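Fig. S4 source data, part A: sequence.
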Amino acid sequence: MKASWSEVERQVRNGETFEVLNRGRPAAMIVPPRPEPVAVWDDHLATAVTSAGHRAEEAVREDREGRW
């Protein structure tokens, strides 16, 4: 496998799965990664839950006061 890794990697990238054997017994599986879902948040502060009657932007600003 070491000598042909680039070919194995190309095939896995194209959706193939490989079972790695050690002395004829399954030792590992090489599988393509699952795509991670990406959260789309246009304005996360505007949609954030308010705390103690403050908008999220105000809460962040108050928390940072004196540190910047």
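Fig. S4 source data, part B ends here. The two ends are 54 Å apart (CA to CA).
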